[in-house]
């Protein structure tokens, strides 16, 4: 029985390696997205805590200078939050782009795998036919030999 040899095996291996690289790139993009989202969450917590502090200071009449400082701080913090929101959006776009590349790469690899599976089934069918032909020839030879022996 001949060994199955898929002529497009190098292409399949290349596509698998490419998919592995894209999977790692997607994981890195996901990690960076998580980092950026964490920074934004931290800024939001700081902003919320600062607003709570401003509300507390409003109850005290003698802290107008401190209130002005907090308001300026809150304005600056709000600007940082907007910048960080843009960073998160960019990171999300990069992540989605990497995900789409990975999906397309997996689709391309799978199409070559399907061609390989079909070729392998065809090879097995041909091998089974050859085996059956040999078995039939052996059976015919035995039958003919048996008939010749009976006549003698």
From TrEMBL:
Gene3D superfamilies noted in UniProt: 1.10.287.1700
GO biological process assignments: bacterial-type flagellum organization; bacterial-type flagellum-dependent cell motility; chemotaxis; protein transport
Keywords: Bacterial flagellum biogenesis, Bacterial flagellum protein export, Cell membrane, Chemotaxis, Membrane, Protein transport, Transport
Membrane-protein topology: Peripheral membrane protein
InterPro entries recorded: Flag_assembly_chemotaxis_eff (IPR053716), Flagell_FliJ (IPR012823)
Protein name: Flagellar FliJ protein
Major location category of this protein: membrane
GO cellular component, one term: bacterial-type flagellum
Organism for this UniProt entry: hydrothermal vent metagenome
Location in or out of the cell: Cell membrane
């Amino acid at each position: 029985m001949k060994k199955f040899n898929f002529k497009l095996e190098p292409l399949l291996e290349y596509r698998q390696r490419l998919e592995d690289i894209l999977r790692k790139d997607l994981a890195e993009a996901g990690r960076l997205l998580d980092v950026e989202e964490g920074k934004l969450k931290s800024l939001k917590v700081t902003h919320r805590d600062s607003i709570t502090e401003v509300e507390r200071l409003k109850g005290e009449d003698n802290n107008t200078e401190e209130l002005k400082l907090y308001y300026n701080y809150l304005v600056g913090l709000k600007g940082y939050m907007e910048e960080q929101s843009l960073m998160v959006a960019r990171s999300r776009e990069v992540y989605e782009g990497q995900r789409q590349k990975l999906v397309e790469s997996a689709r391309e690899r799978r199409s070559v795998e399907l061609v390989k599976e079909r070729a392998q089934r065809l090879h097995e069918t041909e091998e089974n036919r050859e085996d059956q032909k040999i078995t039939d020839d052996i059976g015919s030879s035995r039958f003919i030999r048996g008939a010749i022996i009976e006549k003698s």
